[in-house]
Amino acid sequence: MNAEDLKEGTEISVLHSGAFTMSLPPQGNALEISPWRYQREAADGQVTE
Protein backbone atom coordinates (compact mmCIF):
# COMPACT_ATOMS: atom_id res chain seq x y z
CA MET A 1 0.00 0.00 0.00
CA ASN A 2 1.45 3.35 -1.04
CA ALA A 3 0.80 6.75 0.50
CA GLU A 4 -0.95 7.71 -2.75
CA ASP A 5 -3.52 4.94 -2.14
CA LEU A 6 -4.64 6.53 1.14
CA LYS A 7 -7.50 8.93 0.78
CA GLU A 8 -9.97 10.29 3.29
CA GLY A 9 -12.47 7.54 4.10
CA THR A 10 -10.18 4.65 3.10
CA GLU A 11 -10.57 1.78 5.57
CA ILE A 12 -7.34 0.17 6.74
CA SER A 13 -6.29 -2.68 9.00
CA VAL A 14 -3.40 -2.11 11.43
CA LEU A 15 -1.41 -4.92 13.06
CA HIS A 16 0.40 -3.87 16.25
CA SER A 17 2.01 -5.51 19.27
CA GLY A 18 -0.35 -3.90 21.75
CA ALA A 19 2.50 -2.15 23.59
CA PHE A 20 1.99 1.58 24.13
CA THR A 21 3.79 4.23 26.16
CA MET A 22 2.13 5.55 29.30
CA SER A 23 2.38 9.12 28.00
CA LEU A 24 -0.66 11.20 27.07
CA PRO A 25 -1.51 10.60 24.30
CA PRO A 26 -0.21 7.02 24.21
CA GLN A 27 2.23 6.16 21.43
CA GLY A 28 2.83 2.81 19.76
CA ASN A 29 4.23 1.27 16.59
CA ALA A 30 2.38 -0.33 13.71
CA LEU A 31 3.89 -3.60 12.46
CA GLU A 32 1.77 -3.67 9.30
CA ILE A 33 -0.77 -1.38 7.63
CA SER A 34 -2.91 -2.86 4.86
CA PRO A 35 -6.22 -2.14 3.10
CA TRP A 36 -9.32 -3.47 4.86
CA ARG A 37 -10.26 -6.65 2.98
CA TYR A 38 -13.71 -7.39 4.35
CA GLN A 39 -17.15 -5.88 3.92
CA ARG A 40 -19.37 -5.36 6.92
CA GLU A 41 -22.93 -6.56 6.55
CA ALA A 42 -25.15 -3.98 8.24
CA ALA A 43 -28.18 -6.28 8.43
CA ASP A 44 -26.78 -9.04 10.65
CA GLY A 45 -23.43 -7.66 11.82
CA GLN A 46 -21.49 -10.55 10.26
CA VAL A 47 -18.08 -10.02 8.67
CA THR A 48 -17.71 -11.65 5.27
CA GLU A 49 -15.02 -11.81 2.59
Summarize the structure.
The chain has no helices and 4 strands.
Task: Explain this structure.
This protein has 49 residues and is mostly beta strands. Helix content is 0%, strand content 31%. It is built from no helices and four strands. It is elongated, with a radius of gyration of 14 Å.
Helix residue percentage: under 10%
User: Could you say which overall geometry the principal axes of the C-alpha atoms support?
Assistant: elongated
List the total number of helices.
0
* Unreliable segments of 5+ consecutive residues: none
Mean pLDDT: 79
Structural class assignment: mainly beta
Strand-residue proportion: 25-35%
How would you spell out the order of helices and strands?
EEEE
Counted beta strands: 4
Q: Could you give a short account of the major beta sheet?
A: 2 strands, antiparallel
Q: How many whole angstroms does the radius of gyration measure?
A: 14 Å
**How far apart lie the N and C ends?**
19 Å
Overview features:
49 residues; elongated; 31% strand; two-stranded antiparallel sheet; two-stranded antiparallel ribbon; single chain; mainly beta
Q: What order do the helices and strands come in, and which of them pair?
A:
Elements lengths: L11 E5 L13 E6 L3 E2 L6 E2 L1
Antiparallel strand pairs: 1-2, 3-4
